[in-house]
Amino acid sequence: MELVLVPMTPEEFERRSAESRKRYAANLHSELGLTADAATAEARRQMDAVLPRGVHTEDAILRTAWVNDTVVGWVWVTRAIRLYESLGFRVTSQHMAKLLRES
């Protein structure tokens, strides 16, 4: 089993970002009490702020993870953490996961 990371296409970015915005909007709605419309607008605003040019956003690395002929996930790496550190922020929590299964 070999994991391969390939550059995300603009079409895949649109599909994946739409899924992410939908989940995030649902969280904003349930956790912050925003209306569904306001939550959807806020999720879009935030995504557009951090990835204004999609896969072509400077300093963002977007990859699709493949095992054999199956997409198993995606990776988004950004250098934004350096910006936050320069403003005095510090990392207090970081979450990472890796699903392991036999093919």
- What structural class do helix, strand and pairing data support? alpha+beta
What is the fold named in CATH at topology level? Aminopeptidase
Total separate domains: 1
Based on CA atoms alone, the radius of gyration comes out at 16 Å
Report the span from N to C terminus.
Answer: 7 Å
**Shape, per Cα inertia axes:** globular
Average pLDDT confidence is 86
- Share of β-strand residues: 15-25%
- Give the proportion of residues in helices: 40-55%
Total strand segments: 3
Summarize the structure.
The protein has three helices and three strands; from the N terminus they run βααββα.
Describe the structure.
With 103 residues, this protein is of the alpha+beta class. It has a single domain, classed as Gcn5-related N-acetyltransferase (GNAT) (Aminopeptidase). Helices cover 44% and strands 21% of the residues. The protein has helices spanning 10-32, 36-50, 80-86; strands at residues 3-7, 60-67, 70-78. The protein has a three-stranded antiparallel beta sheet, with no helix packed on it. A hairpin with a 2-residue loop joins strand 2 and strand 3. Helix 1 (10-32) crosses helix 2. The longest helix has 23 residues, at 10-32. The protein is globular. The N and C termini lie close together (7 Å).
